[in-house]
Design a protein that fits this description.
By secondary structure, the chain is mainly α. Helix content is 79%, strand content 0%. It has helices at 2-35, 40-43, 46-71, 89-93, 99-135, 140-169, 177-188, 190-200, 204-215. Residues 1-199 form the G-protein coupled receptors family 1 profile domain. One of its GO terms (cellular component) is plasma membrane. Odorant receptor.
Length: 216
Amino acid sequence: SYLGFASQLFFFLFLISAEYYLLTVMAHDRCVAICQPLHYGTLLGTRACVHMAAAAWGICLFIALLHTAKTFSVPLCQGNAVGQFFCEIPHILKLSCSHSDYLREVGLIVVGVSLTFGCFVFMVVSYVWIFRAMLRIPSQQGRHKAFSTCLPHLAVVSLFLSTGVFANLKPPSMSSPSLDLVVSVLYSVVPPAVNPLIYSLRNKELKDALRRLITG
């Protein structure tokens, strides 16, 4: 049904974009913590963190509502059967018979991609500042501590972006319903599922437990 498709698309867009924008906020958090540690409490207090998180969720809510409303206002002339497990925008647009509505939705996608690229550039610039600050730390122990602070975030960002880029930019010759399903699950389910594990690897007790499990 349209309602089921629309609900699935809304929550898919909302949760995926929320994951990405919160990772962007976390990159800023790491940058301030390492580059300006003495001012961290002033620059990123509780109120500032709440405001950034609320802004990220609010933007994601607006984006998801806008895309969902626009996508499902496009008239379909090739039926309403989507040959995918996930109800994604490109597969719905293939069923469209209105060229002008199709172009408007593609325009929204271009704006979304531009915002995504802007967040990526922001994260890259943040980590350039972080690595520059780390190189100025005199002690090896201090550099190791700073790097271990960033490592979980870098791992999550790398996993999220690599699977997402492959899912959306893979060659058409590699596209198949089964592969698209696996890749969609990979970038939409796996990164959020492993987040708690990756961020918990800094916990000494958890690392000791994993070491004992591996070594028997």
